[in-house]
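Re: [ENG-882] Designed sequences occasionally contain unexpected residues at chain ends

Forwarding the minimal case from QA. Structure tokens:
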């Protein structure tokens, strides 16, 4: 078997830097190449890096061959809110880049591919509470449509060609190192930054909007646990439901106020309210727990303490 060499595409995004560090710990810094369309930022400057526009298929293939890559984590995408501003571009970027990676996996015999799906793949007639793994999926955002279609393509490549592709339906991810970009769940990150720096926050979702959420270290753990699991334990090849907690803006504000009593919140819902209202409030992730042993660590209280403590140390 060839030595494992990993390429991350979209490593400059919210999840990318932390996932890169997780992969450094498993495979060593020398065997992990981070890539993004932008120049490297922050911690990514410390490791191996290639500037890559994933829409340039030839450059992607050339890079995969040159570094003898065996595993790809394809994280580049336009998220739910930005996708609505240019739906045609969101479709093109999200779908074509996934197909390039799946084609590369087949042509170049990659050992494994990781591609994230999302709670956005569900829609308004999906059961909202404890949303099951297999249920109605009728996404209303172009981002969600690309995630549902992408899940189908992943399963197709697995069934038809045996490509070992694995995926998770992420809930909103909350971390303090890298800001998110263009999502509907982003309020749950922003609120912590504003609580520390300005002591006040105006939320773009209504106070009682429940959404499934996960702390960054759990999201990294879920991804690496899935990717490290023996292939026979990965029984779902579209995408696994994963969850950790579910809360609404009023709850996270009240939890922050226990630690920052002067913190205030106001509400001004915008177009993202309709997107949030079309998504599940909580997720049933029993298959992930049963098949490959998924366990989360952080709930709202533990996460709040981590976020506030770490952000208080970072200069604004
Ligand atoms: N966090 C993403 C978003 O809000 C959901 O996958 O778009």
């Amino acid at each position: 078997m060839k030595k494992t060499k990993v390429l991350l595409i979209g490593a400059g995004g919210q999840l990318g830097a932390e996932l890169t560090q997780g992969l450094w710990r498993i495979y060593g810094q020398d065997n992990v190449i981070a890539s993004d369309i932008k120049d490297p930022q922050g911690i990514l400057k410390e490791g191996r890096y290639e500037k890559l526009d994933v829409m340039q298929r030839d450059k992607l293939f050339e890079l995969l061959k040159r570094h003898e890559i065996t595993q790809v984590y394809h994280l580049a995408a336009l998220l739910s809110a930005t996708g609505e501003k240019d739906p045609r571009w969101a479709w093109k970027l999200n779908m074509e880049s996934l197909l390039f990676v799946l084609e590369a996996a087949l042509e170049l015999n990659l050992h494994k591919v990781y591609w994230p799906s999302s709670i956005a793949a569900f829609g308004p007639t999906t059961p909202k509470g404890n949303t099951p793994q297999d249920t109605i999926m009728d996404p209303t955002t172009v981002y969600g449509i690309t995630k549902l279609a992408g899940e189908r393509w992943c399963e197709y490549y697995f069934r038809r060609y045996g490509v070992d592709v694995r995926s998770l339906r992420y809930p909103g991810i909350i971390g303090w190192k890298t800001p998110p970009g263009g999502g509907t769940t982003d309020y749950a990150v922003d609120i912590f930054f504003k609580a520390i720096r300005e002591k006040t926050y105006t939320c773009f979702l209504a106070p009682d909007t429940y959404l499934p959420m996960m702390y960054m270290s759990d999201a990294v753990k879920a991804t690496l646990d899935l990717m490290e699991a023996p292939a026979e334990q990965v029984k779902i090849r579209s995408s696994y439901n994963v969850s950790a907690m579910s809360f609404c803006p009023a709850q996270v504000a009240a939890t922050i106020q226990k630690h920052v009593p002067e913190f205030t919140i106001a509400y001004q819902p915008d177009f993202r309210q309709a997107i949030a209202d079309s998504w599940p409030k909580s997720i049933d992730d029993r298959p992930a727990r049963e098949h490959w042993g998924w366990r989360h660590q952080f709930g709202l209280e533990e996460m709040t303490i981590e976020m506030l403590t770490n952000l208080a140390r970072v200069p604004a």
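QA comment: On inspection the terminal residues look reasonable. The longest strand covers residues 32-36. Proposing we downgrade this to a documentation issue.
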